[in-house]
Write a structure and sequence with these properties.
Distance between the termini: 74 Å
CATH superfamily of the domain at 296-457: Ribonuclease Inhibitor
CATH class of the domain at 296-457: Alpha Beta
Strand order of the largest sheet: 6-7-8-9-11-13-14-15-16-17-18
Number of strands: 18
CATH architecture of the domain at 296-457: Alpha-Beta Horseshoe
Length: 457
């Protein structure tokens, strides 16, 4: 029902609503406790009723009546918006635009752009032109944010520092060009733009210092999470991002020189997040993680653990951990000589992860291939990822001999290994489902392994 008010000495209102060929009118004095006057009029058809309604509305607007548009609240539409009802998103956008809210314009813009090539570029440009509305106190920190906008709100948000821009920490210099993620994260989570946030990713936590996620975990423990968050990434950085970071050591002998080695941030355990992660559908951790210390996560569908040096206790936890909904598991352990193929064969016996269809074992060397070959769950898998294991031509012979075990897969990923062109061609003929992109040279692989050895020593 449309409402109009006339602010004369007698502050009156008038309302009109069309239902097919009928118009309903209500009128009265604003603030009066008396019931408003109400009447109905019928017309020959809906078109005639519409014309009469438009005439009456025009007449009142010409006589200083003002249409009152109620400010929409997200809660009025929330259930439909979360369900992805695009018609309701359009209605919500219209009401926001009527109030002059830029978020309504952004929703309409994104709907009009659809999947056009420049959609993201134009979306980010519009957000930048209304930073106060969409980012608030995060304005000015765009170089530390990776934001994905959908329907005018954040769908995914990444916050990070770039360790490559850090000053020489061993000399005691500070780098004030970046803000620690610990300072940005509460601002993001409390902002209206994060109301429908689904994916939160935290990259390098500080500009080259401390190398720990402990403050981030403690902050997340006490912070109110976005209601619909279902994916968390701790350690949203690549190997190459960390290569030029400068490690600071407590041991006296290390303080005399900068140690330019790739050290991942430290994380004792995920136990502080026990009460938070129960609703997650995806969890990814890239850190020097000591223990999981989490209960069974019944909703978790995707788990990625990238750990530079794995302790046996973490493997024991995986052996005891039941994840009934898990469909994707990636274990990336680049420097874990104490872990054997038999250890992983126990983890991958199939009873703990009955619905697993995608498995990744990376950074383990030839042990990864041995572990998958021994895994009882192999026949149930659809995708196996053995990328980044330093597999060479010697392993091709074994793979070809076992091709019957891998032929049922939709995809066998062997990226970033050290296969020669000849061996790659031979393997591709034997297993057409294999993906051999981005092979490294043996020299590149040796330098990478030497770097890890240097860190662990």
């Amino acid at each position: 029902m449309r409402r109009f008010e006339q602010k004369t000495p007698v502050h009156r209102f008038w309302e009109i609503e069309q239902m097919g060929a009928e118009l309903t009118f209500r009128s009265g004095r604003v603030g009066s406790r008396a019931f408003p006057d109400e009447k109905e009029e019928s017309y020959r058809n809906a078109a005639e009723a519409k014309r009469e309604a438009e005439r009456l509305v025009k007449s009142r607007l010409e006589n200083d009546w003002v249409e009152i548009v109620e400010t929409p609240t997200v809660t009025d539409f929330e259930a439909a918006l979360v369900a992805g009802d695009q018609a309701q998103w359009a209605v919500f956008a219209d009401r926001l635009q009527a109030e002059g809210d830029p978020r309504g314009e952004l929703i309409a813009l994104q709907h009009s752009l659809g999947k056009k090539r420049d959609a993201k570029k134009r979306t980010l440009a519009f957000v930048a032109s209304h930073e106060d509305t969409f980012l608030g106190a995060l304005s000015g920190h765009g170089e530390q944010l990776d934001l994905d906008w959908r329907n005018g709100y954040l769908h995914a948000a990444g916050l990070f520092c770039d360790p490559r821009e850090a000053s020489d920490w061993s000399a005691g210099d500070d780098d004030d060009s970046q803000v620690p993620v610990e300072d940005l994260l509460p601002v993001l989570l409390a902002h209206e733009s994060a109301r429908f946030l689904r994916v939160l990713a935290v990259g390098w936590p500080e500009p080259g210092s401390d190398c720990t996620y402990e403050p981030i975990v403690e902050l997340l423990r006490h912070q109110v999470w976005p209601k619909y968050l279902d994916a968390l990434v701790l350690g949203d950085f690549s190997d190459s991002t960390a290569l030029s970071s400068v490690a600071r050591w407590d041991e006296e002998e290390w303080l005399e020189e900068a140690t330019e080695l790739d050290l991942w941030p430290d994380l004792r355990s995920l136990a502080p997040l026990t009460g938070k992660v129960a609703t997650l559908r995806a969890l990814s951790v890239r850190a020097n993680l000591r223990r999981l210390e989490l209960p069974t996560l019944t909703k978790l569908q995707s788990l990625e653990l990238h750990v530079q040096h794995v302790e046996q206790g973490l493997v024991a936890e995986l052996l005891a951990w039941k994840l009934p909904a898990l469909t994707s598991l990636v274990l990336d352990f680049p420097h874990s000589p104490s872990i054997t193929p038999a250890d992983f064969a126990q983890v991958l016996h199939g009873q703990r992860f009955p619905n697993l269809t995608r498995l990744g074992l990376c950074g383990l060397g030839p042990r990864a291939l041995d572990a998958v070959s021994l895994a009882p769950m192999l026949p149930k898998l659809k995708v196996v990822d053995l990328s980044g294991n330093g597999l060479g031509d010697d392993e091709v012979t074994g793979l070809i001999a076992q091709r019957a075990s891998f032929a049922h897969l939709d995809k066998l990923l062997l990226r970033r290994n050290v296969l020669s062109k000849e061996a790659s061609r031979e393997l591709k003929l034997a297993l057409p489902n294999v993906d051999l992109a981005h092979q490294r040279t043996r020299r590149q692989q040796d330098r990478l392994e030497q770097r890890y050895d240097g860190v662990m020593e």
